[in-house]
Amino acid sequence: MPPFATEPLLTTDVPSPSSTTTIHPTYKYTCPYSKHKEGRNLVVCIDGSSNRFGLKNTNVVELYSQLVKSEAQLTYYNSGVGTHARPTWRSLTYVHYWLSNKVDLLIAWNLERVILAAYRWISENYQDGDRIYLFGFSRGAYQARAIAGMIHRVGLILPGNNEQIPFAFELYSKIDEKASKRKKSRRKHAWANELAETFKSTFCRSHVHIHFIGVWDTVSSVGVVRGKTLPSTTNGDHHMCYFRHALALDERRVKFLPEYIHGANTEGSHSERIKEVWFAGSHSDVGGGNRLNEKLQSGDIPLLWMRKEAVEAGLRVKPTEVVWKMDDLQKRTFESLRRTWWLLEFAPVKRVVYGTQDNHTFGYVLLHRGAPRVILPGQKIHASVLFKGNYRAKAKFWKDFDVWPELMYWNDPVSQDRLSKLGQVWEKDIFDASTVPSLLRDIQLHGVECFDAVDRLAFMASFGECFISLLQFVF
């Protein structure tokens, strides 16, 4: 029996755990790439710009603290762009680190270094059948998606070839996905693809896929100059099993425009495998880091949602005191567009142009002037925003394809009835009474190991319609 077979895990499996079984994910959708249920989890977590472990920890750090660390699940964490450990004394070395930190925040010259370090860790630890999980926030989210794109395009380097990793990234970054649509560039595009494929077959494992990507508010923008979008970061989901993206409804800074899974394409399709869900707040409200969180118990809704989604896809997490609570719905959000950030709002900053079938269309379209973000068809909004008193989201629906309903009140029967009638654009996970049977089933099968299901039921029991459903199934 493997040493991790009896590890208490948080999952939503159908089979009851025994001395010979290991708990595995049970989404309705079955990932075609996850054929080896005995495989391990390799979990990579990359933090956002200037974010690291400290007093104001992000969701990345908090999620990492909850991960089971064992032979069944190997973990890796990298602090964000622009973070360095401060020397013990102030000397020329200190000045060097200080300048390096500031420049890194401005132009992110270590963006590639972080990608290659995480890629190398995966390549050194990967075994056939392992499941790769990638988590990130802000630029760290973009780096996580770039790792997935790199593995998809050039493969995962074989052990003993670490010196070839920089060349792998060079080949990957030279692939120009727009070139195939330009007559003059088609030959160059074909050449770059051929080289990448040849490199993959020579030095890499070519059939490695990403099991789960979980990111908070992906931002690729670096400094005042926008570079080329890295391949396979904003052009679909064919190289991953599950993609979860938490987005900030109230972020308005032009340099923090989000990178959607389908880029600028407003006709991209979403499915059970792909979820992009909007939450109340600005960039760091959704990804964490705006408030003190030294005990790693923030209870932020975007984190709890991501944890639930990842657990259902097989992530192993430890019991935690953080649960769904009514108070979390009323947390204050912060305005990020302040002071010097306004200067860029009146500068000709290159940004994405929505409404095309091209995933990578950019242009200098008017001045941004603090314009709201755009909610695209197929994306969802978390229903928790409807219970925030006096809250009005800043983001707008693309071409008004939907409208905002009225705010709801927790103990109002009319609000409860309206909640059940909300359309598909709303993510109702913690309010959805239809999930009661599956949650009770998980508790019956897995007992105390399914503590997340218990927490969710306790939260739902305080809500009228869910409480009635719970009583119906219990009695």
TrEMBL record:
Residue intervals of the T6SS Phospholipase effector Tle1-like catalytic domain: 40-308
Organism per entry: Suillus subaureus
One Pfam family it belongs to: T6SS_Tle1-like_cat
InterPro entries: AB_hydrolase_fold, Tle1-like_cat
Protein name: T6SS Phospholipase effector Tle1-like catalytic domain-containing protein
